[in-house]
Amino acid sequence: MTPAPPQVLTETAAGLCLLFIVLSPFAAAGLAIINAGLGRSRNAAHMLLSSLCVFALAAVVFFVAGFAFDGYPGGPAHEFFIRGKSWNWIAAGHFFFRGLPLDGSPASLAALLGMMSVGLAAIIPLGSGADRWRMGAACASTTIFAAWTYPLFAHWVWSGWLAQLGANYGLGQGFVDVGGAAPVQAAGGITALAVTWVLGPRRGKYTSERMPMAIPGHNAVLVLLGCFLVWLGWIGLDCAGAILFARAEAGRSVLIVVNATLAAAGAMLAVAAITRFRFGKPDASLCANGWVSGLVASSAGCAIMPPAAAMIVGLVAGALVTYTVELLELHLTIDDPGGSISVHLIGGLWGVLAVAWLGKFPEGAASGQWLAQLAGVATLLGFVLPLTYAIVRVVNRFLPMRVAPEGERQGMDLHELGAGAYPDFVSHNDDYLQR
Description:
Elements: H1 11-23, H2 25-38, H3 44-70, E1 77-82, E2 85-91, H4 106-128, H5 135-158, H6 165-169, H7 181-199, H8 220-245, H9 253-279, H10 284-299, H11 307-331, H12 340-358, H13 369-398, H14 405-410, H15 412-417
Antiparallel strand pairs: 1-2
Helix pairs in contact: 1-4, 1-8, 2-3, 2-4, 2-8, 3-4, 3-5, 4-5, 4-7, 4-8, 5-7, 5-13, 7-12, 7-13, 8-9, 8-10, 9-10, 9-11, 10-11, 10-12, 11-12, 12-13
């Protein structure tokens, strides 16, 4: 998307955009519930409180410093020049929203959407660190992510040099990501991968021969309920992003809702079909992950794809989830209880690449689009991943991220919160088996 002068929204469009942003916390709530249901019952309250804490902290840090580095399309920014062309690399805003009119202007709506988006991205890694990631360490990691990593990359995607690849280098429309598949989903998934590498697998997950043991989630009802909440929040994120960053007219929201729903449905049905064929019965937790992965993959091109293309994106995303979960767990010994890496990182990368092949652009305006999308993927894997891993390692050096073995055996609820989520009727048969 080529940067343009500051956008002017009609009163109707601004009001509709605000409504969509207000819906977006449902995505965070749904994701937190899914992560809690996929973990052990003795860690459920800890997961939900951790989700609320990192969301709140991310929003506050983004208010204090993040938006100053993120900015908005057409806003003030620092630039560098190569061969006479200006490349935008970081916003030049003020801390604490100083000078930002909170009046429904595009800048104020972008700031509000950024608070919600960075909060959602901060929740994603909690699924990978489930049952063993200390809340204090999660908050420390979130602080750096919300203050620097997310704002910097989000700026590149929607305002900076990635968005300028079209205007300055002739690569299609520049990097296109309408709803945040790269800065929100894939960046959150990269953090999940880094956290999982540093934490290591849960106790009892692998035998001495490195064979994985099944540790099923404790509540499939919560997991499937979370899918409906995530869907509602995703509609808000995608529609608000389309209005603010893709300059879509308000009426385009109908197409976005249709595309998001079809992608989620296609991904979930693909997972159900694959697991039924392979195992004889559909797998509820994988179906839930497929549903979310379809929403993730649809985000990048939700406003510029025909519905049939969105359905294809979802079907592929569902298949990718099914097989990448197995690849990570069985062959790479990566323990990801919530499926965050497969859902958000792999799904986000697929969605970004799918824009180049399935997006509908003006005639003659898509030449080199796949290179622009590939540049975004390369930036994620070549810059954001090493940076995030280094940050997580530093946090772990000064604030150990993994709970003590006794805390993991006892449960995060009792060890860190002093009370369980289900004190009256849940017992743990494996409490004394894994020493």
